[in-house]
């Protein structure tokens, strides 16, 4: 594994001049690396223009295929393919967390959740989107060529933030173009939650987590949480809250179980809390509904 601890090391290894010690844009053209994998100790954004296979980073027939973007948080390990640690053509934007010190981006870099996505959950761009991203990279490079002064970090972070905002917009567009695929994921999630409820684990007070559900679906937790929020308007916890109440409603209609028994089976801490939540959402108490 090749471990890049600094932006300078990354520049030196990939044949790029260091214009700023904390930021760089590297033109990837057949990088000749002997290692199998690469580890970045800083933020890395890859714009991949050529992929070694047709299913580049999870791209499917319903995705755009002009270019692909992968986002890596500090400490992540990346491998493009079995024979290529990095793409043969594209760009690498590298920026160290220290660059963000005293900038607005430092306070909400965590909001760009795609830095925690799997490689297979990459962003696939159209021609127009690719042009816009390259324009953002050119603006960053233009600022890098300016002598470093007291404004450099602020201006560079603003340019990076703008690029990330465009990527947020394009990921939302990708959720739309993957509408049918997303429905299949939601159906699988429903089956998983039904099985979880039927297993009796709720009676033990163990609620399903988004991490557990994402793992069952083969997704990163961050991607799964964003997908659920986009498709339903709710967080996973909110979604399961409604799911549990809907299950309680159906059990009440069957008439076999008391509200107390249902509260115990569905893992509510006590009957008072169950009554409170049920009445708040359904507009009536469990016993009145029954």
Largest β sheet strand count, sense and barrel closure: 5 strands, antiparallel
* DSSP strand tally: 8
**Which oligomerization state do the chains in this entry correspond to?**
single chain
Provide a count of the helices.
11
Strand order of the largest sheet: 2-7-4-5-8
Task: Name the helix and strand elements from N-terminus to C-terminus, one letter apiece.
Answer: EHEEEEEEHEHHHHHHHHH
Please give the alpha-carbon distance between the first and last residues: 62 Å
Summarize the structure.
With 290 residues, this protein is α+β, with helices and mostly antiparallel strands.
Describe, in plain words, how this protein is organized in 3D:
The chain is of the alpha+beta class. Helices cover about 50% and strands about 15% of the residues. The chain has a five-stranded antiparallel β-sheet with strand order 2-7-4-5-8, sandwiched between helices. A three-stranded mixed β-sheet has the order 1-3-6. Helix 6 crosses helix 7. The longest helix has 26 residues. The mean pLDDT is about 95.
